[in-house]
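hey so i finally got around to running the thing on that chain from the lab meeting. sorry it took forever, my laptop kept dying and i had to restart like 3 times. anyway pasting the input first so we r on the same page abt which one it is
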Amino acid sequence: MTQYNKTLGPLQGIAMTVTTFIGTGLMILPAMSVTEAGSFAFYAWLITAAMIMPIAFIFALFGAKYPSAGGASHYIGRAFGARYEKAVGWLFLSILLVGPAVAIKVASAYVAIIFKTSDEWILTFSMLTLGGLLLFAIAGIQTSARFQTAVVVVMILVILWLCFIGDIQSSRHVIETPISWPEWQQTLYATGVIFWCFLGIEVMAHMGAEFKNPTRDFPIALLGGIAIVILAYLSLVLLIAWHHTYGDEVTNSQSLALLVSKLVGETSSRFFAAGAYVIAFANIAIYILGFSRMVQAMAQQNALPNTFAQLSKNGTPKNAVLLVGIIMAMSLLFAEYSGWKMAWFIEMTNGSFLLIYTLTCIAALKLIKGATRILSVLALASCGFMLFFIGESVFFAIIAFIIALTYEQIKTLTSDKKAKLDVQ
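ok and heres what got predicted. didnt touch it at all, straight out
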């Protein structure tokens, strides 16, 4: 079996989009942005959202027109050929080496809070969390979609509740408009931090083939979900700034817990930690599903062994999920014992996703015709804008992409020579 079960509707798609973007970032990004931009943080989020929307529209157009488990690699392949498609697939899989370790370790830190254990237990909790995530992924997309929907409903209700008890209307007084160039610089540099929130458009692109009606439902799911995400983050930015639950690195990482504690009381911290863990779990689950779909798509292209192309009866690429799990386990062990800071892993992940977005927008210039082509130009300009603030972090991705492209070129040349010899 190699065909997916088309089970996703627009509401389930919106829920999966929201949990793709709102995960571990929800726990730290609002406070980090306020620390970076101060009273201009609100505008920093609006600018970042304005930059990301053209990119989101490009993915929505592609997802509707070319639904595929290959996601961005499939779109780029249609524009520039199979060699580039496979190379982008390898680039996406290279994120497994640096990205998931951060998210799983952040989630596991909340488990340590729940059970009041020392930091030495975080690696154990990380491995147990990974095991649960793999079982969850193997259960199938429909099970995941139901879980994501429930998480999103509860999360929205909690944010609305915080807005009510935290006096969101009064918090508007913290908003200041940047006027001078130094103020604009402070605002714009915060967008580099905020960009991490919007990593995941490419992951959702891999789900396009599993919508009942991709042409109608995928754009609704992606754009509707992003709209909810932006409103949720803006609300928390205002509340955190108004109640002053931000500052140094430790305070920022605990900003939402401090906000809840300030508004409700310290006894609620363990309940909050449990809720934060569930949100992070849902977020990472989407990434595992996306990576697994990419592995399955590459196996169909013969870039990986055919065993990873097979699907179970419920439409899950079981072998691909297990491969992703092994790589993620290695990444967690490397992050634990290498001594490298988590900031490095975050920066490398940002750079890889930004390169994938940029290549997708370049492909859009070739594939999208008519009036909507202006979106391709705007999206590419947005990528250039973000590249300026992410900077050298993109070099890891560029090197990985060049190596993958060279590898695929050598494979193609070797295959062509073998074919000629067979003919002779």
